[in-house]
Amino acid sequence: MKTELTTLLGIEYPIIQGGMAWVAEYHLAAAVSEAGGLGIIGAASAPPEIVREQIREVKKLTDKPFGVNVMLLNPNAEEVARIVVEEKVPVVTTGAGSPGRFMEQWKAAGVKVLPVVASVAMAKRMEREGADAVIAEGMESGGHIGSLTTMALVPQVVDAVSIPVVAAGGIGDGRGLAAALMLGAVGVQMGTRFLVADESIIHENYKERVLKAKDIDSTVTGMSHGHPVRTLRNAMSREYLKLEQEGAPFEELEKLTLGSLRRAVMDGDVVNGTLMAGQIAGLVTRRQSCAEILKEVTDQAADVLKKKVYE
Ligand code: TUI
Fold it and tell me: Tell me, what CATH number does 104's domain have?
């Protein structure tokens, strides 16, 4: 399936894998890229030298384009930004802030830059600063989110900018991809569907929780201090929301969740770990390889796009 996104990035399917913290490591990224999508290494808060190693491991497994997600709340973001250039990473996505301060060095090095945005204002700013495309992410997503839904955000961003727009948030199958294209997007970013991919290294317990999740099983913590995060409900999210309701200070809430994503992903602690996942988790019911996911999603999108609307 060809779109402006496949041309821009030199990939086969208009699907980018989300840069999920702890989850988006080199096995997953390489599998997505090798299968024709854009695999992403999520730098999150990893030590910069680990990010460099991850980049080198991806290159051993595939010679196709891949990217690194630079999480802008990371105090080491500057070093990661430099490593991306040194290691000649072809594509960068960013999250949780504005990458303006890194734009010049990335553009000078020929890196394609696709910032994740959650508003029209940020999309316009990114276009002005030289972004190659923007990823408009709705609050259906897992992890750190904005406040608009994908359905409302994407067409407004499409109308506001001239660069290509990728849709993210609540997209888990071919109907979602087709809908995104109808809204004017040139492709999608998916995270939750890749959590359970065969090549995803997350703990089996985490995968099982995603596979068994229903439509209403996610919740949003962190609203009170302006860093909302969508996760699957468990003892950790309940405790967090209780403390928030009682007016607990930010530091106490931070202490509660310290290391909790790692505990969920690596140790399979689905009770006291943080299980980031999007609202589409209820739709994700099967384990498949990344290649199967990419083919199924694009085949289904082509199918539904061919169907006639009643005349
Ligand atoms: O970044 C994400 N998702 C993430 S990052 C992450 S690590 C983390 N964990 C706990 C707390 C905070 C972060 C887990 N999930 N998605 C992309 C995204 N970016 N969603 C929303 C935004 C965003 C928000 C504000 C982008 C730009 C922005 O600009 C604000 C400004 O004016 O600078």
Answer: 3.20.20.70
Q: How far apart are CA 297 and CA 215, in angstroms?
A: 20
CA of 60 to the centre of ligand 1 (A): 30
Amino acid at site 280? I
Q: Judge whether 207 lies within some domain.
A: no
Predicted TM-score (pTM) of the model is 0.98
Range of the domain at 222: 214-276
255-300 tens-digit pLDDT: 999 999 999 999 999 999 999 999 999 999 999 999 999 999 999 9
**Protein residue closest via CA to atom 23 of ligand 1:** 96
Paired tokens of 135 = 């990823």
What's the structural domain count of the chain?
Answer: 2
Enumerate residues 6+ apart whose C-beta is below 8 A from 90: 9, 10, 65, 66, 67, 111, 112
The pLDDT tens digits for 206-233 are: 999 999 999 999 999 999 999 999 999 9
